[in-house]
Amino acid sequence: MANIDLANWVREKIKSLKAYEVEDFDCEIKLHANENPFSLPEELTRNFPECFEDLQLNRYPDPDCRLLKQAITDITNIPPEALVIGNGSDELIQLILQIFCDAGDSYVFPDPTFGMYSIIGKGLGLIPRPYPLDKKWDFDGDDFLQFLTGQSARVVFFSYPNNPTGNCYSAVEIKKVIVGFRGIVVLDEAYFDFAQQSFCEDIKNHNNLIVLRSLSKIGLAALRVGYGMADPYIIEQINKVRLPYNSNTISQEFATRVLQKFSPIQDQIKLILQERDRLLEELSKLDSLTVFPSDSNFILFRVANDGEKLFKNLIENGILIRNLNNHPSLKNCLRVTVGTQKENDLFLAQLGKIDL
User: Is pLDDT at 56 greater than 90 in this prediction?
Assistant: First the structure.
């Protein structure tokens, strides 16, 4: 029986990593993962059983995702040769770093932001260089460009709107970076459907720009479908390292059908935005909370006293939100995903019972 010291074989850069934590307490109301709180509309799901009968599950999926790409082209006007499909946008983030960086290279992202930017790069032996955001969760483009130059960065990531702060950065300042940076600029627009602000149209004028989007936030989180838009040369390089069957047949088929009949999802998005505005208004009435503006489907707020206590109290009462207290810039900060009207009412009612 083999019994080796496995720790001696794991790379040091991996041993030093901390896995991305997904909180999953046994709570009836889960407002922690920025998911669509509604199930897929029945008019979209009623034909899914018939769909399974037509799928050849004994065959490999289409490696080029042709039907899904065409559906994306129809709504974005980005041609198929400028598109790549990912197993979630996380996979595309990893492939971008793999293509444009060698071990020891630096890349940059504003901070605080999506934690996987750092984890993925460290796992590849790269050096993440976080740029601290100002008190309004924004930045000065000229200063950002100086930082990029000083760090010899090869890639910069912008979450737009930013997770977990919820805001879109100044488009003017981002444009400065796209034009002035002699490297790759990635606009991660996972929450585009809620913000309706995009740099998609800039791709044709800036060949260093990559725009990422996801279907996870609008109701298809279980399918893991993300896509990237960029100059065809960049797409060609991504396809060299992308696993050939990274997108399964079921995800391709269902995502295509949803995009081809998107109006029911758009109706859900409108409801989420209405509830977001209501939540913002109600939370802002609480003197003990500092509530930050949101362009997305979640809201960041800071508790005056003890955010950890509030987080635990909510869990004890069956409500799970995101605790961000471990980040130095997010002391006593919590993030709540916009739920259904009923879920949001229960969340607000419980807040009203707590001595904040």
Answer: no
